[in-house]
Design goal:
By secondary structure, this protein is an alpha/beta fold. It is built from 9 helices and 7 strands.
Length: about 240
């Protein structure tokens, strides 16, 4: 029976991951901003088979609360097998270009808060000498693009952080996984037109659980995004600056 912490547990992808672990009768510790939504998710996961479901409220940008939050989760579960960080926001890029405070807020939510949580959790994982840390970042972090470079900058920062964390924690037997989804059909992207490149959160959740079990270090999700981002990353700057992405 596994012990799972999910931060940002009300997000569409996180909820689907939690359902998969509930079927395995895992003990789940769910953390999110909206405690009423967490209570609803808790009831659903118990019906699906979860052994126990704990819930805790948090504000990603209240950094001073993160150490206590992580400490309480680890104390409750005693041994943590998987920590999944899935919270985030999709900013309005045009507003961020003219409102510095909004740009900083989004960098804090999507980047700094994740690094803060990881710093506390990594120490706990290192002490127990086992476990998995998985973070949902984004393909947007691979190359800055005019359409979403504030969001991409935050996600790219977390991916670089995870690379170093992977090297550090490999010596203690802790596995780190960077999940990079492409377009996913969630409430956060409800206003976007959907096409062939869009994935359902259920599919992404299956990939995440599989990658955790296989101890991959990173995963483009779905896998075809590896080819897409390889092309985007190597487009010469002179050409890249003339196109709209």
């Amino acid at each position: 029976m596994k012990n799972i912490i999910i931060i940002g547990a009300t997000s569409a992808m996180a909820k689907e991951v939690a359902k998969l672990y509930a079927i395995d009768k895992a003990n789940l510790y769910l953390i999110a901003r909206d405690i009423s939504k967490l209570d609803t998710i808790k009831q659903d996961l118990i019906v699906r088979g979860a052994s126990t479901v704990y819930t805790a409220e948090f504000d990603a940008n209240q950094f001073d609360s993160h150490e206590t939050l992580i400490e309480q989760a680890f104390q409750t579960l005693e041994q943590v097998d998987v920590l999944l960080i899935a919270h985030g926001s999709l900013p309005n890029q045009e507003r961020c270009q003219t409102d510095c405070s909004k740009a900083i807020e989004e960098i804090n939510t999507n980047g700094i808060s994740v690094i803060s949580l990881l710093t506390h959790a990594a120490t706990k994982m290192e002490q127990q000498q086992s476990g998995n840390i998985t973070v949902i970042t984004s393909v947007a972090g691979d190359r800055g693009r005019q359409s979403n470079y504030v969001y991409g900058a935050a996600k790219g920062m977390v991916s670089i952080f995870l690379q170093g964390l992977t090297q550090r924690l490999s010596k203690s037997g802790v596995h780190v996984l960077d999940i990079k989804p492409g377009f996913v059909d969630t409430p956060m992207t409800a206003e976007f037109d959907k096409g062939a490149l869009w994935a359902k959160p259920e599919k992404v959740a299956e990939i995440i659980k599989k990658r955790i079990s296989k101890k991959n270090s990173f995963s483009y999700t779905p896998a075809f995004w590896f080819a897409i981002m390889t092309i985007i990353k190597f487009v010469p700057k002179a050409i890249f600056n003339k196109i709209s992405l």
